[in-house]
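Narrative of activities, Objective 1.

The group set out to show that a structural description can be obtained from nothing but a protein's sequence at a throughput compatible with the screening campaign. Below is one input-output pair from the validation batch, recorded exactly as produced.
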Amino acid sequence: MTKALRPGLNLLPRLRSSARFLGCALLCLPLALPSLPLAAAEVSLSAGDGELAKALRGASLSVQAEADGIEDAQELIAAAQADYRRLLAALYERGYFSGAISIRIDGREASRVSALDRDAQVGRIEIEVTPGPRFSFGEARVAPVPEGTVLPEGFATGQPAGTIVMRQAAEAGRTAWAEQGHAKARISSQQITANHGTEKVDAAFAISPGPRLTFGTVTLSEAATQSAVRPERIRQIAGIPEGEVYSPTEIARAETRLRQAGAFASAVVTEAEEIGPGDTLPTRIEVQDAKPRRLGAGAEYSTTDGLTLSGYWLHRNLRGGAERLRFDAEIAGLGGGTGGIDYALSTSYTYPAFRNPDRSLVFGLNLAREDEPNYISDIAEVNVGVDRYITETLSADYDLGLRISQTEDASGTRDFTHLTLSTGLTWDNRDDGTNPTDGAYAEVELMPFAGLSGTASGLRASADLRGYRGFADDRFVLAGRLQLGMLAGPSIAETPADWLFWSGGGDSVRGQGYQSLGVGSGPTATGGRGFAAISTELRARIGESWGAAAFVDYGYVSADPDLSGGEWQGGAGLGIRYYTSIGPIRADIAVPVTGATDSVSVYVGIGQSF
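Output recorded for this entry:
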């Protein structure tokens, strides 16, 4: 037998309208009726095992009502009656188009129980679902679509049918037209027919592309005109290309640029409902200012490295153009066994939308003193550069700097003057910056440097690669990190000590002493010109607030940039995590697995180790 699905059970807007109506019923009924004696209700749902049963339980308002401890009879009756449609929709989503649903309230079918009965009592709700066979697609069609449009893989003849993949396919077709400039493309019709004899579903969606549009006038909302950022700068930062072919990607990029500017707490770009003159599409920018100033601080402690304290002050909108002025300060090595105390002070000035919405001009000044076990360096550096936003996950930076430093180590006291040109790329698609469970992060930097006043020239390169994979609903996360470094050109003695590479400590090999592995040993040890470090960590979530971790780290340092003739060191340990709104508070305990193994190190900080 072949039949079209009933309109009331159709896919897109109608299910949502019915859900809103039933949601209103749930809210309104308890207000309209007098309170009744409380009656505890027991809810059971029989639908077999597996993912389908889990989905049905998640869709059931009756199951949710029991979990929430709801005892009002009218609410329970309304929930049970709403479950017919909700459970049927859940079956349709997964391709079960001939299922049967029975919901009994104390032995009576819920559809025959009046929710207006003032004397109603609910003791037990029994839900029985017989899903029937799972249907597959016969015809699966979305038309017309632009050439090259890729529909969801599951929307094809012979694949398991379901309303979820149908909606995805229809939306993919509409979005494909929108990306071609047809902003008002819409799904104009849909025909979904289930053949119960062949257990097939034919699904056909028609799309009306509408005219191809270009971006029209960009206006600001009334709230945006009150922003402390000047209106012309808001438009410049958003960078909506008036006169160019419409693209939803450009709308998303404009919102991202506004948020990344730092001056706004929120930013939304909306499209006009009506098409403007000449097939144009006006847009409107809505922004809400962030607080202009911000003060922050941080702390990290390890038994070997000591205590590190950091802080910053930030002005988000210095001159009315979303310019950012920031000061950072850090003191490290307090109470540690890693030489003396390190100091760092830096300031930066950032001007967003510099000659292009995706570029920011950055000026920087850095002063630092590094008092390490094998060297002391004093550093002053000034730089100017451009940060470039390429995509939501990829950014680049270019930086020209003048660096003056003095190093005191086993080779004596030496002065260096360098002209540096740094180029970096950063890829970041992690789902969370402080507690990632999925995605990857990669940062690569090349820094050719020219020596002045007799200082040697060369190239310094580094890479930091991280990957994350969650499983078992992200209750477990496997994290990995690979660090690489290379310095070519000058010899070790001709290189500032702080540019050389070391292994050991919280940022490379936990359990080993801070900068405990370099080239040579004892008071004459130096950093190397080649470096590699590998870290693996298994993280487990224990309840809502706690977690645990097990990790192994290895680091390698060589005298030569080709990583030949070097030495490995390793460390391993366990950790605990306490999850907060600003990220996990981390405590790791680690021991060496190479060299002397009778020491224990503890590391405490905010955020995962990498």
